[in-house]
Design a protein that fits this description.
Elements: E1 17-18, H1 22-25, H2 28-39, E2 44-47, E3 65-66, E4 69-72, H3 73-76, H4 78-96, E5 102-103, E6 105-106, E7 109-110, H5 113-122, H6 126-131, H7 135-141, H8 150-170, H9 180-184, H10 192-195, E8 208-210, H11 215-220, E9 232-234, E10 236-238, E11 259-260, H12 283-297, E12 325-327, E13 334-336, H13 355-362, E14 372-373, E15 378-379, H14 380-395, H15 404-415, E16 420-431, H16 432-435, E17 487-491, E18 496-500, E19 507-515, E20 518-522, H17 528-538, H18 540-545, H19 559-564, E21 570-574, E22 579-582, E23 588-592, E24 596-603, H20 609-622, H21 630-639, H22 646-673, E25 677-680, E26 703-707, E27 710-715, E28 732-735, H23 739-767, E29 775-776, H24 777-789, H25 796-820, E30 826-827, E31 833-834, H26 840-852, E32 855-856, H27 860-882, H28 888-901, H29 907-929, H30 936-947, H31 953-980, H32 988-998, H33 1006-1028, H34 1037-1049, H35 1056-1078, H36 1087-1091, H37 1107-1116, H38 1126-1135, H39 1139-1167, E33 1188-1192, E34 1199-1201, H40 1230-1243, H41 1248-1274, H42 1287-1293, E35 1311-1313, H43 1325-1336, H44 1342-1376, H45 1384-1403, ...
Parallel strand pairs: 1-2, 25-28, 29-32, 33-35
Antiparallel strand pairs: 2-22, 3-15, 4-14, 4-16, 5-8, 6-7, 8-10, 9-16, 11-12, 12-13, 16-17, 17-24, 18-23, 19-22, 19-24, 20-21, 20-23, 26-27, 26-28, 30-31, 33-34, 36-37
Helix pairs in contact: 7-8, 21-22, 22-23, 24-25, 26-27, 27-28, 27-29, 28-29, 29-30, 29-31, 30-31, 31-33, 32-33, 33-34, 34-35, 35-40, 38-39, 39-41, 40-41, 41-43, 42-44
C-alpha cells in the first residue's frame, strides 16, 4: 500500500450508522433517545430508514427558484484566508508605493510569504535572524532541503518585500525631524546604495504577479457581471505572460498621477484615465498642481520656476536635490528619496503615498467576511445543468463515475492553496414555506397517492418533527425558519457548509432527498470549546475582527489539522434517502459531492434544556441575538403543567428554579441600585427585535429596564449600567410576571412531576404479590395505559411492568391456542423463535410457568384436560402401529386428532411414514390401470417417491416391476428417436417392423407415437404422389410444391421425392429465366403481372363513373369469378383444371383489360377538352396541371411533364412512347420468348406464369394475323420505310403549341406535346383497337412499329391539312371584322349564350325544349352492347377515316350516342350532355368522361368539333 503524501488529506474515522427496524422507526424521538449514548460521543450519526420507507418528493420544482451564494474555496479555510489577507495587505502596501507585488519562486515552488514573515517574527525579528544567522533554520522549518543555500534567498526576498512592510507596521518609517540632518550627510556617501531599498521589486521572469482578493471590498460591492461559477484560474501569473488587467489594477499604461520635482520625465498619459482616490484640494491649488506637472515634464528644456521653491522635504526641511524630491499623490507633501526609511534608490513609476498617507490608508478596519450573493436567479433544472457540467468538466469524466474519495481529497487540496481559485455556488437556507417542503404536507399543492398518505403524519417528516410532543420547540409559538420550518439546500460539487453549531445548541436532522452524496464532518459536543480554541490559536487574526466568527458559517478548517491538535473528528457520506443527526453543541461541517437536494430542521428534546439555558448565557457573552426566548418557552410549558410529560415536567421544574433564582437576584440588585418605578409589560406580544437588549442583544421576556430619554431602547437586568447616563432612579422596570406569579407556576410543575410516585408504588406492590393475592392481567394492562396517558418516563420500573405483562399475554395466548388447536409458533425464554410444537414434558413445564407468573391466567385449569386427551391419543397410536396391515383411513384419523391437540407427539412421525407407504402403493396400482397416461416421467416420479419411503416388502416388489417397465420403455423411446432422426432416412418397411414390437408396451411413449404418425403420413403421401399423374394430367406447380414440402417433413425415405424436388427446382429456374427476359431492372411488377393482361387500372387513369351507371353495369353483369386483381387471376389459374380453362380465364381478363384501357383513353382525352381549371383531375405522375413541354402516352393517352418521366428513347419519334405505367416490361422479341414456352412444355408442369406466357404468344400470333388482314383490306404499305412527317404534320403533332382557350375568357398557361403522337380524330375503331392491342403486347414485333409509322404519318398529314384550311378561314373572317377584333370575341359571345342555355337547362328545360336531366326526346333504343360495338368496328367498306357526325334530323341518331367508345349505359335515367360546338350532338356523360357538375358549369365540345372548328383543348 502506497504511503500518502505529507499534504494529502487523510479521512477521519467514520461516525456510527444506525439501521432501525420498522418497530424502532415508528417513534423517532424514542429511537434518538436510544442511540444518544452512542452518537453523542461522535457528535453526528447517520440513520438509514427501512428500505420500504421512500417518501415522495413533494417540492414544487416548477416554482422553485433561488439566488445561490458564491463560495471561493480557498477563502473558506481559516489559515488560507489569513494568508490571503496578509498577501492583500502586502500588495496594497506596495501598490500605494507605486509597485506591483510579485511572489518569488524558491526551489521551483511559490514562496509562502506569510509563513516566512511569521517564522522571522518568532525568531526575534529581521535583525536578530541576520545577526545570529538563523536563515538556514528558517529554511528547514519551511520544508526546504538543507545544503542548497536557500537561506540566503529567503533573506533577500524578506529584505526586499517584507522588511519595508514590517518597518511600516512598526512605525519606523515615520522619521523624526532630528534625523534629517544626519541623512543629509549621506547623500554624497559612496556607500549610500548599499543601504538604500530599491522599490521596484524587480524579480526573475519566473516570479508571479499577485492578484489581490479584495475580500472586504467584494463584500460591500456586488460584482457587475456574473462570473462562471466553475471558474478555475491560477492566482499567480507569470510576469511576462498575457495578464488580464482589471479596473483599478496598476499597470504600465495607467496614468502617472504622482507629482514630483526634478528632471524625471513622466510617460505619456493615455486619454482614458482610471479614477484614483486622492486627497481633495482647493481649486487654486489644483490649478497650481497642473502648472507644476507641466513644469516637471519640461524640466530639461526650461529652467525651474519660482513655484518649485515652495516644496521642501518634510523630513529634512530642505528644498535642494529637486530630482530626488517626491510629491505624495495623496496629500501633496514632499519627501526626499534618501530621507525615507528605508531610502528609495529611484523614483517610483506608479502612484506613491507618503508614510502618513500610507499609515492612514492601511489602518482602515476590515469589514466582516461573508458570502456574496450570485447575480443570477436559478431554477432547479438550470442549477442542476450548471452543477453537472462543472463537475464533469472539472474531473473530465461523467459525474456518476467520479469516486467520492477523489472529490474529498481534491476539495481539501483546493481550500488550502492560494495558487488556484475555484468558485462554486450553493443554494443554502431556502425557505420551504415559500416553495414547499420536499416532504408532503397537509393542504399542500402536491397530490398524494393513497399509499403515500402515511408520510403526512410520519414523525420522520421534517415538517412534523419540530412540533411533535417530545420536541420542546413545539412550545415556541413563532414559526422560525430553519428551526421549526425546514430549510432547503441545493448543492453542487465542492459547495460547502462551514464549521458551526446549531442555534441555541439544538439538535438538527438533515435528509437528502436525491442527488449525489453529502460529506459530513463532526466533533462531539464536549470538544466544542477545544475546537474553538484550536481555530483561535491557528487563525487569531480572524477572531480579532470577528469574535463570533464560528457562528457566521463562513470559516472552515481541515479536519486533519484539528485532529493533529487533539480534536476528535468523525466523518460520513450521506447518500440519498438517509438522515444525518447532529447533537447539541456538536460542531459540524462538510461539502457536497455533486448536485443534490437536501432538507434540514432543528428539534430539541428534554436532555437539551440545561444546554439551552447555558447557550443563552454564552450568547449574552458574545452579544449574539437569540432565535427565541428561552425564558418565554419555559413559562409557556409551566402554564401547561398537566399535559407535560413527567420527565419534561421535572426538567422544566429544575430550569424554572434556576430562572426564578436568577431573576430574584437581579431584581434585588436593581432595587438596591435605586430603581423604584415598575410597570407590567406583555413582551410575548412584541416582535423579538423590539425587545432585544441594547447591549447583549438577548431577547427579554421576564423583565427589562427602560429610560424616558431613550425611547424604544431597553436593556436586560444584566446590563443596567449600559442603558444611558441618566440617574438610576429614572429607570423603569418592565416585567411580565411578578415573583409571586412565578412560584405557583413552578408548584404546578412540581405536582405534575410528583404524580408519578403514586403510580410507581402501586406497580411495585402488584409485582410482588403472592398466590391468591395476584391481580388479573387486565389490571396490569390498565397500569401500562395509565403510564402512557400520563406520559410517565420509560424507566426500569415501567420496562419491568411491560415485560411481565408481555410474558403473561404470550402465555395466555399460547394457552388459548393450545386449547383451540390454532397455535403455530411459540417463543422460548431465550428469545429464539422455534417452529417445533410443545412436547408433553414442555406442556407440563408450561403449566407450571403459568402458576409462577405475578398475575393469574384463567386458561390454566383447562390445560389439565388437554393432557388427558394427549394420553388417550398415545394409547390408541400404539395399538394401530402394532398391527401388520393398518388401514390408511385409520392412520389418517389418528393424524387428524393429533393436529387438534397441537402438541409434539412421538407417535406422529411413525404414523406419517406408514401413511406415505399406503398412498404410494395406491398410486402405483392406479397408474398401472391406465397405460395411456403412464409416461416415462410418471414412472420416474413414482420410482423417486418409492425410493424415499421407508423399506417394506410390498414397496420393494412394486419398485421392481416399475423399474423393469421403465427400462423397456426408455429403450424403445431411444430407438424410435434414432429411427426418426436417422440420416439417411430409413425405408418404410423398416419402420413398420419396429412399430409391431412397440405396440405391446403398456406405457405412453411419445417418440413411438411420432414414428407411427410418420409411417401413416408416408403411406398417404405415396398415394397422393401416384395419383398426381394418373390419366396423363399435368400437375400444377402449387400442388407439386405442396407435395414436395410435405414429403420433406416426413422422416422416411420416399422414392418419388428426389424426382419431384428436381422438377420443382427446374420450374423455379425457368421462372428466373423468364423474369430476366421480361422484367426491367428494379421493376415494380411481378412476372405474372407482366405476362397476363392488365386487370387493375392506376388511380390516376380510372375514369369516373356516376353512381347510377356503376349500379346498372353491376346489375347487368352475370355472376362470374372475381378477377379484379393479379392475386385473383393467379388463384383462378391455379384452380383451373387444364390449359383450356386457363386460356378462357385469361381471355376474360383480356376483355376486361381492353374495356378498362378504352375507358382510360377516353377519360384522358376528355380531360383535355375541359374549359375550366383542371381542379380535381390528375395529370402525369405529379398532381400539377399540364404546362410547357408535355409527353403523351400512345397507350393510355395521358399527359406527362417531360421533366417527370424519362425522355423517349428515340428523340425523332420513330418509336411509340409509353408512360412508365404502360411500359411494364423489356418487351423482348418473339424469337426470345418462344424458347421459353418450349422449355416449359418439356417440363410438363403447369404454373400461372406459364399459362400467361402461352396466352401471350397465342394473343401475339392472333394479332399478327389481324394486322395482315387489315393491311390487305386497307392496302396499307406494310413495308414502308420510316419517313419523317411533312412540315404540316410536324406543325400539328409536335411543334404546334397549344392555344389558350377558356369558356370564361380567363387565360391558362400554355402547353404543347413534345413528341409525335397518333391523332385519334379520323382514326377508325378497328385501327385503334389494332394499335392499342399491339401496344399492350409485352413483346417487340416489327408489325407494331410499322403500323405505328403508317398511322402516324397519314393521319398527321390529314390533320395538318385541315388545320391549315381552318387557319385560312379564320384569316378571312378576321379581315371581314369591322372593328378589327378577332373572331374569338364572337366565340366569347356565343360562349355567353351557351352559359345562359346552361342556366335554363339547370332550371329544367333548355331553349330547344329538351329535358337536361333525362334522355333526348326519343327514348334511347336498347341495343346489345357487343352487337353495337361490332357494328361500329366492322363498316361495310373499310376506310382509314370515318365521318363521326350523324344526321341531326334522325331520331334514331338522337337515341344513339355518337361516342366512339360508347359504353351503352342502361337504366331509367341516363345523364346526357350536348356538344356546344358546331355538331350539337348528344353524348352519354359517362362515355365522354364528363361529370354532371362539370356539364352544368362548363362548355363541352366533342373531339370532332375540337379538330373541325379549331377549338383549343384545355
Amino acid at each position: 500500500m502506497t504511503q500518502p503524501r505529507p499534504d494529502e488529506f487523510i479521512p477521519p474515522p467514520e461516525c456510527p450508522v444506525f439501521e432501525p427496524s420498522w418497530e424502532e422507526f415508528a417513534d423517532p424521538f424514542a429511537f434518538i433517545n436510544k442511540i444518544r449514548p452512542i452518537a453523542e460521543k461522535t457528535g453526528i450519526c447517520k440513520v438509514r430508514p427501512p428500505p420500504d420507507w421512500q417518501p415522495p418528493f413533494a417540492c414544487d420544482v416548477d416554482r422553485l427558484h433561488f439566488t445561490p451564494r458564491i463560495q471561493r474555496l480557498n477563502e473558506l479555510e481559516a489559515q488560507t484566508r489569513v494568508k490571503l489577507n496578509f498577501l492583500d495587505q502586502i500588495a496594497k502596501f506596495w501598490e500605494l508605493q507605486g509597485c506591483t507585488l510579485k511572489i518569488p519562486h524558491v526551489e521551483r515552488k511559490i514562496l509562502d510569504l506569510y509563513q516566512l514573515n511569521k517564522l522571522v517574527i518568532e525568531e526575534g525579528g529581521f535583525d536578530i535572524v541576520c545577526r545570529e544567522r538563523r536563515w538556514t533554520k528558517i529554511a528547514l522549518k519551511m520544508g526546504f532541503a538543507p545544503g542548497k543555500a536557500v537561506g540566503s534567498h529567503l533573506r533577500a526576498h524578506y529584505e526586499r518585500i517584507l522588511y519595508p512592510y514590517n518597518l511600516f507596521q512598526s512605525g519606523s518609517n515615520l522619521l523624526a525631524p532630528g534625523l534629517a540632518s544626519k541623512l543629509m550627510h549621506l547623500v554624497a556617501d559612496p556607500n549610500l546604495e548599499k543601504c538604500v531599498q530599491k522599490p521596484t521589486l524587480t524579480n526573475d521572469a519566473k516570479d508571479k504577479e499577485y492578484k489581490p482578493h479584495d475580500l472586504a471590498q467584494r463584500q460591500s460591492v456586488q460584482p457587475v457581471e456574473t462570473c462562471t461559477p466553475a471558474r478555475r484560474a491560477k492566482r499567480m501569473r507569470t510576469e511576462g505572460g498575457s495578464v488580464k488587467k482589471e479596473p483599478g489594477e496598476p499597470c504600465e499604461n495607467r496614468p502617472n498621477l504622482r507629482r514630483r520635482m526634478g528632471s524625471f520625465v513622466a510617460k505619456p498619459e493615455p486619454e482614458k484615465e482610471i479614477p484614483v482616490q486622492v486627497k481633495q484640494e482647493p481649486e487654486g491649488r489644483s490649478v497650481m498642481s497642473e502648472v507644476e506637472k507641466a513644469k516637471a515634464r519640461n524640466k530639461k528644456n526650461a529652467p525651474a520656476m519660482s513655484i518649485v521653491d515652495l516644496y521642501v522635504c518634510l523630513v529634512c526641511g530642505s528644498g535642494s536635490d529637486e530630482d530626488r524630491l517626491l510629491l505624495c499623490d495623496g496629500c501633496d507633501d514632499s519627501y526626499h528619496t534618501f530621507c525615507l526609511i528605508p531610502p528609495l534608490h529611484d523614483v517610483p513609476k506608479g502612484d506613491w503615498r507618503c508614510p502618513k498617507c500610507l499609515a492612514q490608508e492601511c489602518s482602515k478596519p476590515q469589514e466582516a467576511f461573508g458570502f456574496e450573493q450570485a447575480c443570477r436567479d436559478y431554477t432547479l433544472r438550470a442549477f442542476g445543468d450548471m452543477a453537472d457540467s462543472f463537475k464533469s468538466d472539472y474531473f473530465n469524466m461523467p459525474v456518476h463515475m467520479v469516486p467520492t474519495e477523489l472529490v474529498e481529497k481534491e476539495f481539501w487540496r483546493l481550500v488550502s492553496t492560494i495558487e488556484e481559485d475555484v468558485t462554486v455556488e450553493y443554494g443554502a437556507d431556502i425557505a420551504s414555506k415559500e416553495f414547499g417542503s420536499g416532504f408532503p404536507i397537509r393542504n399542500g399543492k402536491f397530490k398524494l397517492a393513497p399509499e403515500d398518505e402515511d408520510y403526512l403524519n410520519s414523525g420522520w417528516n421534517l415538517n412534523n418533527m419540530p412540533v411533535m410532543d417530545p420536541s420542546v420547540l413545539t412550545h415556541v409559538t413563532a414559526d422560525i425558519c430553519g428551526m421549526k420550518l425546514p430549510w432547503l439546500y441545493v448543492g453542487m460539487c465542492f459547495s460547502s457548509f462551514c464549521w458551526h453549531i446549531e442555534d441555541h445548541w439544538s439538535y438538527s436532522i438533515n435528509y437528502l432527498h436525491w442527488g449525489e452524496p453529502k460529506t459530513w464532518y463532526g466533533a462531539p459536543g464536549y470538544a466544542a470549546e477545544q475546537l474553538e480554541e484550536v481555530m483561535k490559536k491557528l487563525a487569531p487574526e480572524l477572531f480579532e475582527s470577528q469574535p463570533d466568527l464560528l457562528h457566521q458559517l463562513v470559516t472552515i478548517m481541515n479536519p486533519n489539522i484539528l485532529m493533529a491538535y487533539g480534536v476528535p473528528i468523525y466523518r460520513t457520506n450521506q447518500c440519498a434517502g438517509e438522515f444525518v443527526i447532529t447533537f447539541p453543541r456538536a460542531y459540524h461541517s462538510g461539502f457536497n459531492q455533486g448536485f443534490n437536494f437536501a432538507e434540514a430542521v432543528n428539534f430539541c428534546t428534554v436532555d437539551w434544556m440545561p444546554l439551552g439555558r447555558q447557550c443563552v448565557d454564552h450568547y449574552r457573552m458574545l452579544r449574539r441575538y437569540c432565535v427565541f426566548s428561552h425564558d418565554e418557552m419555559i413559562c409557556k410549558m409551566a402554564c401547561k403543567a398537566d399535559t407535560l410529560d413527567v420527565v419534561l415536567a421535572s426538567a422544566v421544574q429544575k430550569d424554572m428554579a434556576i430562572m426564578i433564582r436568577e431573576e430574584r437576584k437581579l431584581r434585588e440588585n436593581i432595587r438596591k441600585m435605586g430603581v423604584v418605578n415598575s410597570h407590567p409589560a406583555q413582551y410575548d406580544l412584541l416582535p423579538d427585535e423590539e425587545r432585544q437588549c441594547a447591549r447583549c442583544r438577548t431577547t427579554c421576556y421576564l423583565s427589562a429596564l427602560t429610560c424616558p430619554c431613550s425611547r424604544g431602547v431597553l436593556v436586560c437586568l444584566h446590563h443596567v449600567q449600559d442603558l444611558c447616563s441618566c440617574p438610576v432612579n429614572c429607570y423603569t422596570l418592565h416585567y411580565k410576571y411578578t415573583l409571586d406569579d412565578l412560584y405557583p407556576m413552578m408548584k404546578a410543575i412540581a405536582l405534575r412531576a410528583e404524580s408519578y410516585n403514586d403510580w410507581a408504588s402501586h406497580v411495585t406492590e402488584i409485582l410482588e404479590a403472592k398466590l391468591d393475592k395476584k391481580k388479573s392481567l387486565a389490571e396490569f394492562r390498565a397500569l401500562i395505559e395509565e403510564s402512557e396517558a400520563k406520559a410517565f418516563p420509560d424507566n426500569d420500573l415501567l420496562r419491568q411492568l411491560r415485560l411481565v405483562t408481555q410474558d403473561a399475554e404470550k402465555c395466555s395466548s399460547v394457552a388459548q391456542q393450545l386449547l383451540n388447536g390454532k397455535r403455530k409458533t411459540r417463543f422460548r425464554s431465550g428469545g429464539g423463535k422455534s417452529q417445533n410444537q410443545l412436547t408433553v414434558e414442555e406442556l407440563k413445564s408450561f403449566v407450571r410457568q403459568l402458576y409462577n407468573l405475578p398475575c393469574s391466567i384463567h386458561q390454566a385449569p383447562l390445560l389439565k384436560e388437554l393432557l388427558n386427551h394427549v394420553e388417550d391419543f398415545q394409547q390408541h397410536s400404539e395399538k394401530v402401529l402394532a398391527e401388520e396391515a393398518p388401514s390408511a383411513a385409520e392412520i389418517q384419523g389418528l393424524l387428524d386428532s393429533s393436529g387438534e391437540l397441537d402438541v409434539a407427539l412421538p407417535e406422529v412421525p411413525v404414523l406419517r411414514e406408514r401413511l406415505e407407504q399406503a398412498r404410494w402403493l395406491e398410486a402405483v396400482r392406479g397408474a398401472g390401470a391406465q397405460p395411456a397416461s403412464l409416461s416415462l416421467d410418471a414412472m420416474r416420479r413414482l420410482i423417486d417417491q418409492g425410493v424415499g419411503l421407508p423399506p417394506h416388502a410390498s414397496v420393494e416388489k412394486a419398485m421392481a416391476r416399475l423399474q423393469e417397465l421403465l427400462t423397456v420403455s426408455e429403450h424403445w423411446e431411444d430407438q424410435a428417436r434414432s429411427l426418426v432422426k436417422a440420416r439417411p432416412r430409413h425405408l418404410l418397411e423398416t419402420l413398420e417392423a419396429a412399430l409391431q414390437e412397440v405396440e405391446n408396451i403398456p406405457a405412453y411413449l411419445p417418440n413411438c407415437l411420432l414414428l407411427k404418425d410418420a409411417v401413416s403420413r408416408a403411406k398417404e403421401w405415396l398415394q397422393d404422389a401416384e395419383g398426381l399423374q394418373l390419366g396423363g394430367r399435368i400437375p400444377v406447380l402449387d400442388t407439386l410444391s405442396e407435395l414436395v414440402s410435405r414429403g420433406r417433413s416426413i422422416p422416411i425415405h420416399l422414392d418419388p421425392l428426389p424426382r419431384l424436388e428436381v422438377l420443382v427446382s427446374e420450374v423455379q429456374a425457368w421462372k428466373e429465366c423468364a423474369a430476366k427476359t421480361f422484367l426491367m431492372k428494379n421493376s415494380p411488377f411481378t412476372l405474372l403481372e407482366v405476362l397476363c393482361p392488365r386487370c387493375e387500372a392506376s388511380a390516376a387513369g380510372q375514369k369516373p363513373k356516376s353512381k347510377k351507371a356503376k349500379d346498372m353495369v353491376q346489375c347487368s353483369k352475370k355472376k362470374t369469378v372475381k378477377l379484379d386483381s393479379v392475386s385473383d387471376v393467379e388463384r383462378a389459374l391455379s384452380e383451373s383444371k387444364d390449359s383450356a380453362s386457363a386460356m378462357a380465364t385469361l381471355g376474360e381478363v383480356r376483355l376486361k383489360e381492353m374495356d378498362m384501357l378504352y375507358s382510360m383513353r377516353a377519360f384522358n382525352e376528355s380531360k383535355l377538352l375541359l374549359t375550366k381549371d383542371w381542379k380535381g383531375l390528375q395529370f402525369c405522375v405529379c398532381p400539377d396541371a399540364p404546362v410547357g413541354a408535355m409527353l403523351q402516352c400512345e397507350l393510355c393517352r395521358d399527359l406527362f411533364h417531360s421533366g417527370c418521366v424519362p425522355d423517349p428513347a428515340d428523340p425523332r419519334g420513330s418509336q411509340p412512347w409509353l408512360c412508365p405505367l404502360c411500359r411494364r416490361s423489356e418487351r423482348p422479341p418473339l424469337d426470345r420468348v418462344l424458347p421459353l414456352l418450349a422449355s416449359l412444355q418439356r417440363l410438363r408442369v403447369r404454373l400461372p406464369e406459364g399459362d400467361a406466357l402461352r396466352y401471350l404468344i397465342e394473343r401475339t400470333v392472333r394479332w399478327q394475323h389481324r394486322v395482315q388482314q387489315v393491311s390487305a383490306a386497307l392496302k396499307l404499305p406494310v413495308a414502308q420505310e420510316r419517313a419523317s412527317a411533312s412540315p404540316c404534320a410536324k406543325a400539328f403533332c409536335s411543334s404546334s403549341p397549344s392555344q389558350e382557350w377558356n369558356g370564361s375568357g380567363q387565360s391558362q398557361a400554355a402547353f404543347y406535346i413534345e413528341q409525335r403522337c397518333i391523332p385519334l380524330q379520323g382514326l377508325s375503331k378497328e385501327l385503334e383497337q389494332l394499335m392499342v392491342e399491339g401496344l399492350l403486347l409485352q413483346v417487340t414485333l416489327p408489325e407494331t412499329q410499322k403500323l405505328y409509322h403508317v398511322l402516324l404519318h397519314r393521319l398527321s398529314a390529314q390533320a395538318a391539312d385541315s388545320t391549315t384550311q381552318k387557319h385560312h378561314a379564320q384569316g378571312r373572317s378576321q379581315a371581314q371584322n369591322e372593328d378589327g377584333h378577332c373572331s374569338l370575341k364572337r366565340e366569347a359571345v356565343s360562349g355567353t349564350d351557351r352559359k345562359a342555355k346552361r342556366r335554363l337547362e339547370r332550371d329544367g328545360v333548355d331553349g330547344g325544349g329538351r329535358c337536361r336531366a333525362k334522355k333526348p326526346q326519343k327514348k334511347k333504343i336498347k341495343l346489345n352492347k357487343n352487337k353495337s360495338r361490332d357494328s361500329k368496328a366492322a363498316p361495310s367498306s373499310p376506310s382509314l377515316t370515318s365521318d363521326p357526325s350523324p344526321s341531326e334530323d334522325s331520331e334514331e341518331d338522337m337515341a344513339l350516342c355518337p361516342a366512339e367508345d360508347c359504353q351503352q349505359p342502361e337504366g331509367d335515367e341516363v345523364d346526357w350532355v350536348q356538344c356546344d360546338g358546331s355538331c350539337n350532338q348528344w353524348f352519354h356523360q359517362v362515355c365522354v368522361g364528363v361529370s354532371p357538375e362539370l356539364a352544368e358549369k362548363e362548355d363541352y365540345i366533342c373531339v370532332n368539333c375540337t379538330v373541325k372548328d379549331g377549338h383549343v383543348r384545355k
